[in-house]
Amino acid sequence: MKKLLLAAALLGSLMSDAQTSWAPAGERIKTRWAAEVDPAAPLPEYPRPMLVREKWMNLNGLWNYSLTTAGAARPNGMQGQILVPFPIESSLSGVQRRVSEKEALWYETTFEVPAAWRKGNDILLHFGAVDWKTEVYVNDLMVGSHTGGYTPFAFDITPALTAKGAQKLTVKVTDPTDKGYQPRGKQVTKPSGIWYTPVTGIWQTVWLEPVPVQNHIERIATTSDIQENVLSVEVKTSCTAGDRVRVRLSAEGTVVAEGCSLAGQPVRLAVPDARLWSPDDPYLYDLVVTLERDGKTIDRATSYAALREIGRERDAFGIERMTLNGKPCFQFGPLDQGWWPDGLYTAPTDEALLYDIQFTKRLGFNMIRKHIKVEPQRWYYHCDREGILVWQDMPSGDMATGKWEPHRYGAGTDAERSEESFANYYKEWGEIMDFCEVHPSVVVWVPYNEAWGQYRAEEVAAWTARRDPTRLVNPASGGNYRPCGDMLDLHNYPEPKMYLFDAERINVLGEYGGIGLPVEGHLWSTEKNWGYIEFKSPEEVTDRYVSYVEMLLDLVKRGFSAAVYTQTTDVEGEVNGLTTYDREVIKVDVDRVREANERLVRSLDR
Q1: Domain 12-212 coded CATH 1.10.287.130
Q2: CB 389 within 8 A of CB 333
Q3: What is the pTM of this model?
Q4: What is the second-level CATH architecture of the domain 310-601?
Q5: 91 partner at 20 to 30 Å CA-CA among 21, 322, 432, 464?
Q6: Distance CA 291, CA 211 (A)
Q7: pLDDT of 524 strictly over 90
């Protein structure tokens, strides 16, 4: 994938102030990558690695912002500058200010469309993610609105553009956080314990691209049949009109398969001697997709694909096990919350985003549970390349629970949710699935965490499986047990325990551990730091960690097929990470942990 130079003049006169007016706000700890943030071009990497076009323009940088009451008209002037795409509550935004449910956050900037883009093209404006309700205006004309805090969306802004010169972009955002029913993960207005600082507004890259007027490629997704060595490529286009889609699959620069179909129909490619993707060998094929009309190329994009299969089977003792590429695979990894002391939801740089994944691999894990958050597509791209299995949680919302009784079959009662709330749940969960399912690293869907908003779990599990039958469904990780989906998932702190068993499903330990170690000088706060169990030295933490792995090795024989350790990093007041919140101090003996983890990961090998 080509890395393109970005247009530094996008923000006009605002950019001349960027070097001098922006600085991280607040005095809390920061990561080493905070010093590498360039206010003229923050997060400059191409944001959509699964569908790459050469022409694009990054709009990240210093924008103007203002806060008004939620129902107020657009402000005549702005109150200051904010560094997009860092949320306003974060240090790296340069603002670090809370937004209440009664306020609206307004953004404003300008950009210019290159003259070469205009002929025969529409101009799309992309947002990686905005939390939560968004209205977008170009030159004071509304071009679209969106609800949902975790997935990308785009608008065709061509009709709103002036013939030349600077174009004004205005964005309005409202976000009720925990005062609303929408998915919001661990964001709360009063952070404490396991609940964290809220995130409002733009928190992923904003960008432009030109696409052909007559038709263009919108989405590329693949599924594989490893028994037949066939890769099926589905290419969604903006219209069909009898156009053709052509796909070329390459390995190490050599074409291994080609195919063509009418637009709207999958292209099936026979892949000889297919090299299967796994954490041990995360092999990715290159894809080139062209859209053709009357023998001429209309649009072209590059992507990548992997052949791999996730499944389940009974072992010789009748225990349901997860399989990867037809072989039993014990999946073991940390609970990864994806929070940053300086950027909150937004990693300060792409290098930082990659660091957590590589750190996880370094410790000998083969899986990450992405905990009630969705990451930018580059995070999943890194997981695909590095070779890590991903369990994708649905961010929790509307969390007023009925009764939580995870230790008894069929016990507990559902949360109370309105039909409006539940309809929005389905909308956002479907969008998250559509966004994540193009990545081979994602292997398990987790619709609910514990009993947080758990509602009609049987229905949700069945709906999730119908929408994507190629992955496993963990219906409620640690929640009230319902006999549905593919898994029974237990939570227990601090040590591993098996207190329920379902002979018809895969049995997993979705959370355990939480071994705490506060490290002076690397704490979010000097007060109210906690872990589920706490020690005073890395040696003690490592000893207890390894002892828990030994317990798990015994529980594997009794039926566990996966486990999730809490957690990758400290987060705000939680000090139970394998590393500190600023990623500066690793709190365990890496060699001892890796050796123990690798034994557990290999425990089902045959």
Answers
A1: no
A2: yes
A3: 0.95
A4: Alpha-Beta Barrel (3.20)
A5: 432
A6: 12
A7: yes
